[in-house]
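Intended use. Records like the one below are meant for learning the mapping from a protein sequence to its folded structure. Do not use them to infer anything beyond what is encoded.
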Amino acid sequence: MEAYIKNVIKLGLLLLLTIGGCRHLTAPDNNPQWVNNLIIKFEGEPVGSPPQSIWRYEYKGQFVYYVPAQCCDQFSTLYDSNGNMICAPDGGFTGHGDGGCSDFFQSRRKETLIWRDPRKN
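Structure written out for the chain above:
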């Protein structure tokens, strides 16, 4: 009987570890909800080339979120902490974005990778 109880406990612990490991790891609780929603949206789309990513920086005294362009001649997007688009720092036909934050790459600080699509294309 004692061996049976030990096996049940081991099985229960294994089950808990498995369920805990299935938690959505790409959307940490400390992200704004709109960032988590963006991650979920990207995960529902085909894998990009390069894979989609979201970066956080400090820029002009606030945290901002940078989403690089997926392909040629497309704009990247820079969002404020509330999910409002600030500008397109790069990309487009000229590669210099929309001109709305031409100092972004020189002024940004505290780079943090928030999420990168782990799928392979």
